[in-house]
UniProtKB/TrEMBL annotation:
Protein name: Type IV conjugative transfer system protein TraL
Keywords: Membrane, Transmembrane, Transmembrane helix
InterPro entries, per the entry: T4SS_TraL
Source taxon at top rank: Bacteria
Source species of the chain: Parasutterella secunda
TM helices/strands, residue ranges: 32-58
Length: 99
């Protein structure tokens, strides 16, 4: 966000209209990974382990995602999850369609 001055003072102006979801100051996917690590720690029975796992997951994902496209997380899930749950279009080798 950049700050623009008007007659009432400084006003935050978003740089993009399609800004992704955020939880506090973190992107949604990073915070979801932190919560996942925290939940694993709670299931194991140690909050400290959960916080450490959450921080490690979030930092690793942030570092992996840095400098890549906006939808890198969805792209990664599309290619590596079994069963292709995000498939909306037919396979590229199909040339004839029914209907």
């Amino acid at each position: 966000m950049s700050l623009r001055r008007n007659e009432m003072g400084l006003v935050p102006v978003p740089r993009e209209l399609d800004a992704g979801a955020k939880i506090f100051i973190w992107d949604f996917d990073v915070s979801a990974l932190f919560v996942t690590g925290f939940a694993i720690g709670v299931m194991v029975g140690s909050l400290l382990v959960g916080v450490v796992l959450g921080v490690v997951f979030a930092k690793a994902w942030s570092k992996l995602r840095q400098g890549r496209a906006k939808g890198y997380g969805i792209h990664t899930l599309y290619w590596y999850l079994p069963g292709k749950p995000f498939r909306r279009s037919p396979e590229s080798f199909r040339r004839e369609f029914m209907g």
